[in-house]
Amino acid sequence: MGMEGDFLQLLKERGYELSAPSFGGDGQGLGGIEITKGTTILAMKYRDGVLVAGDRRATAGNMVMYDRTDKVLELDRHSVMAIAGVPATAYEMVRVLEHSFKYYRRTQLQELSFEGKLRAVSKLLKDNVGAALAGTGAVVPIFAGYDFEQGTAKIYFYDILGAEFEGVEYAVSGSGSPTIRGILHYLNTWTDRPLNALPEEDAIIQALRLLTSAAEFDSATGGVNRDLNLYPVVKLITIDGIQTTAAPRLQSLFEAKVARHV
Amino acid sequence: MFEEPYRWVEAVGNRRHYLDEQFQQGSPVVGLSYQDGLLLLTVSRGTPKLYEIYDRIALGGMGHPADLEKLRFNLLEMAHVEGFNRSPSDVTGSRLVKYGLAPVIKQAFEEVYKAPFIVKILLAELGTKAERDGFVTIHYDGTFEETRGCAAIAATPAIQAGMMAALRKVNGRLSLAEAVTAALNAWGTGSLAQLHVESDQEDRKDSTPSPSVSSPDAQAIEAHLRESLAEKTIECAVLERNAPGSSKYRALKPEELNGLLPASLHPS
Fold first, then answer.
1. Interval A113-158: pLDDT, tens
2. What value of ipTM does the predicted structure carry?
3. Pick from A67, A179, B39, B259: most CB atoms within 10 A?
4. How distant is the Cα of A99 from the closest Cα of chain B, in angstroms?
5. Residues of A in contact with B77 (CB under 8 A)
6. Is residue A197 helix, strand or coil?
């Protein structure tokens, strides 16, 4: 019986496997089936913590599978994982992580440290390398949360092999990310206020603008669909926990500050 | 020596006697419904006795800490694997007890060559609606009982019944402070009765007839509570229906608890 509170280990003892690698290559599964993928996600620091946002589109090749995907998933009251890549694997990872953090807290009678949570994400990505390389299960997430030991909200991004990098001010992932990475660099370096000085509202506006830019140049990114009242998911992480920005607020900010009125 | 059936019955009887003695010094645990969910309360010295098991399930126990810890891990494993493989709403207190805990405790109790678990357990489960809130209490021999509204574990079934009677006197939608007061009162009723049982047994050696365990009066309970709180601390946890996120369990911090205590019990 494992007393060390490792939920993934417990699952493995019971015969669980995160993902079995299959053969295909180049983003295609067996028999050339197009794999469903999710796209642009971003995280950036702002004055009170970290903002994490993602568009809502999931695609398979040229097909739009779904336009209401939630790619910014809460792992516990103070951490989120934003996902780009294959949603099937990513959702499964989120489920494992959610249960792992709870299981650790309940068995060990203390919260898993921020470092411990980061390692847990890394470990899952490492277990998934086979599927990632075969093209059927690549996930490139961003992890963001509040680190109580250091008293600050932090952003980390990963490569598909599980190496973790601290994205000091911002991080992006997904097919639309090259477009907005440059914009973020520009905003953070040459505008009058760096990202981490932005008040909440300005940070949300920038996130909406960035995702709209990504959608402009990347067909797999959903952006905003005003006809369907469909807005990106924007979550704010502060010492008080995670707060999801309500659609009406996103709508009014979008109308006032993002949409161009010609 | 246990080949003959009556020897086995005798051995199990001895075992009951042995176990009954083990709980006399233990601290009772109280479970009570209140307007925002369920509350568990006990008074302990150092080692915690109340635990979070799953999103909507909490545990209170009395007995040997090592046994309690072992069974707590069994429950945690079962709940989390089940919650992961099926869904969190399939993890219910009644299934955890019927298929997880009770058979293990019963088997250990009846295998007279091995040591039994020295535990009594109270599980509280918060339903999605208040009507579905409930408690399960498990005895050291693996028998269990499901109740609604309130529950208690203590050294003997008679004392538990006394505590339940005290809890049933408070009706309606209690505020958290009212529930803490009622639960403390029931704890005091049980703890004081346990003291009496102990002293009765000592008296019995002098062959005096044992007085029945009458329900103690309010003053005696208050005095006993004040005495107990001088050297022990109140442990209180709640399952709150409207807590944010999926985990509804929260252990009350000492400052918050002090604010909820009746004036007569405020720490000076």
1. 999 999 999 999 999 988 888 878 889 999 999 999 999 999 999 9
2. 0.89
3. B39
4. 7
5. 1, 10
6. helix
Q: Which of A14, A96, A107 has the CB atom closest to B73's CB atom?
A: A107
The CATH number assigned to the domain holding B108 equals 3.60.20.10
Using a CB–CB cutoff of 8 Å, tell me whether B76 touches chain A: yes
Closest residue of A to B73, CA-based? A107
HEC readout, B94-152: HHHHHHHHHHHHHHHHHCCCCCCCCEEEEEEECCCCHHHCEEEEECCCCCEEEECCEEE
Other beta carbons within 10 Å of A31: 6
**CB contact, 8 Å: B247 with chain A?**
yes
pLDDT per residue as tens digits for the range A199-250: 999 999 999 999 999 999 998 898 888 888 899 999 999 999 999 999 999 9
What mean pLDDT do residues B123-144 have?
95
The reported pLDDT for the residue numbered A60 is 86
Q: What are phi and psi of A139, to 5 degrees?
A: -130, 130
**Is the residue at B124 inside a domain?**
yes
What digits encode the pLDDT tens for the residues B227-251? 999 999 999 999 999 998 899 999 9
CB atoms within 10 A of CB B172: 7
- For residue B245, the chain A residues in CB contact (below 8 A) are 74, 76-77
Tokens at B29, concatenated: 């645990």
Q: Cβ of B245 and A96 within 8 Å?
A: no
- CB neighbour list of residue A110: distance below 8 Å, 6 or more residues apart: none
Cβ–Cβ gap B52/A105 under 8 Å: yes
Phi first, then psi: give them for residue A44, nearest 5 degrees: -145, 150
Q: Residue B26 is which amino acid?
A: G
Q: pLDDT tens for residues A2-11?
A: 578 899 999 9
| Per-residue pLDDT, B138 | 97
**Which entry of A39, A69, A136, A179 is annotated as an active-site residue?**
A39
CB B80 to CB A102 under 8 A? Answer: yes
Q: Is B66 on the interface with A (CB under 8 A)?
A: no
Residue of B nearest to A243 (CA): B244
Among A135-139, A193-197, B179-183, name the one with the lowest average pLDDT: A135-139
pTM: 0.89
Residue B198 lies in a domain: yes
User: How many domains does the structure of chain B reveal?
Assistant: 1
Contacts across the A-B interface (CB distance below 8 Å): 39
Active site residue A59: no
Q: Locate tokens 């807005």: which residue?
A: A231
Q: Which domains does chain A have, with CATH numbers?
A: 36-255 (3.60.20.10)
Do A1 and B77 make contact, defined as CB atoms within 8 angstroms?
yes
In chain B, what residues touch A96 (CB-CB under 8 Å)?
84
pLDDT band at residue B200 using 50, 70 and 90 as cut-offs: confident
Q: Which domain holds residue B10?
A: 5-254
Give domain status of residue B261, yes or no.
Answer: no
CB A99 to CB B80 under 8 A?
yes
> Which residues, 6 or more positions from B6, have their beta carbon under 8 angstroms from its beta carbon?
none
